[in-house]
Amino acid sequence: MGAVPLKWLTLLVITVQTTALVLVMRYSRANASGRPYFASTAVLLTEAAKMTAVLLTLWLENGRSVARTAALLRRDVWGQPRDTAQLAVPSFLYTIQNNLVFVALTNLDAPTFQVLYQLKILVTALMSSVMLKRRVGAVQWVALLVLVVGVGLVQVDRTAAADGRHRHTNHLVGLLAVLALCMSSGYAGVFFERVLKHGAASQSLSVRNMQLSLFSVPFGAVAAALNDGAAIAEHGFFYGYTGYTWAVIALQALGGLAVSATVKYADNILKGFATSISILLSVLISWGYLGDVSLSAGFAAGALLVVGATFLYSCGRPAPRPAAAAAAAARHKVE
Ligand code: C5P
Questions:
Q1: Residue 153: which of 265, 40, 303 has the closest Cα?
Q2: Ligand 1 in reach of 192 Cβ (< 6 A)
Q3: Under 8 Å CB-to-CB from 50, ≥6 apart: which residues?
Q4: How many whole angstroms from 203 Cα to the centroid of ligand 1?
Q5: Which single residue of 122, 188, 234, 332 could bond 90 by disulfide (Cβ 3.0 to 4.6 Å)?
Q6: CA distances, 251 to each of 46, 95, 178, 232 (Å)
Q7: pLDDT digits (tens, 9 = 90+) for 58-70
Q8: Residue environment code for 112-139, b if the CB has 16+ CB neighbours within 10 A, otherwise e
Q9: Which residues of the chain are modeled with pLDDT < 50?
């Protein structure tokens, strides 16, 4: 029963968070005025913030007892090495992904990035069908086709616009970054969903997030050392940091935790639906307040197709297979 409002609450949080993050991140990069902060350090701090938040949640969940929290971590995280180790896969992909988002948003304006990133729904659908045996119906395939057309329209429109303006950014680099992001997001998201919903049922969301964080923090540190090690040593870890950088870190951390809750209480496809709505919001804010983008007919048509496709996808969901429905009902009982 309680799962229904939680589902919509998580979707609402992720819509608002995605819009805010994309705009603040783009603003923090586009207005860095020659002193851009090291994105890899922001990613590392985000992972550390998430781990702290998860530890705090576990402590609250365990009657504010440090001893009980430590015992739980010993039993469910250290004591389950194989179960914990599998989370290294999404953690590794998310580390690359979280760094690539900065590359994409350094080279593309916020709405273009968001519309192109919707291609991840296509990858997510394919992965859900293969890895979770989720049925993708005829209407949903049509919706995916519409999605691809919409993304293509925006892409053509943006490439034309980029030829004339924004000479300091590299549109192709931004585009390649988004394509890599789509692959990684689709696979890692469905992988995490499979662990959450089809793995050991006794593991709570907080334990799963802790298992993920255990890898994400060291991976983030390695990424920072490899990407910016020499420059960090020369200029310092916090070089170029402004209030916007801290806002990006806070929003990223909140977003990560919101994503995990959305995947638990809804699913990865519905998460895509929520981010589609945030596209409309970020286009309007970018256009109205930041002056970052001019709205052309091509862009508007493409964005409409993308958002429409996402709605169509959600409406056209086929009924779950009987076996899958029975398994879901059994899981619901356990929870
Ligand atoms: O765009 P996408 O939805 O794939 O982004 C996923 C984001 O959520 C990544 O930044 C990832 O680090 C974060 N995440 C998280 N904890 C999870 C699952 C995802 O922090 N359990």
A1: 303
A2: yes
A3: 209, 213, 216, 253, 256, 257
A4: 19
A5: 188
A6: 9, 16, 20, 23
A7: 999 999 999 999 9
A8: bbbbbbbbbbbbbbebbeeebebebeee
A9: 1-3, 325, 329, 331-335
Nearest to 220 by CA among 97, 66, 330: 97
Q: Does residue 162 contact residue 169 with C-beta atoms inside 8 Å?
A: yes
Determine the pLDDT at residue 293: 66
- Tell me how far the alpha carbon of residue 104 lies from the centroid of ligand 1, in angstroms: 16
Task: Among 91, 100, 203, 259, name the best residue to mutate to test ligand 1's pocket (greatest count of ligand atoms within 8 A of Cβ).
Answer: 259
List, in sequence order, the alpha helices (H) in 242-295.
243-265, 268-285
**Residue 50: what residue type?**
K
Which residue's alpha carbon is at the smallest distance from atom 20 of ligand 1? 256
Please tell me the distance from the alpha carbon of residue 320 to that of residue 42, in angstroms, as a whole number.
Answer: 40
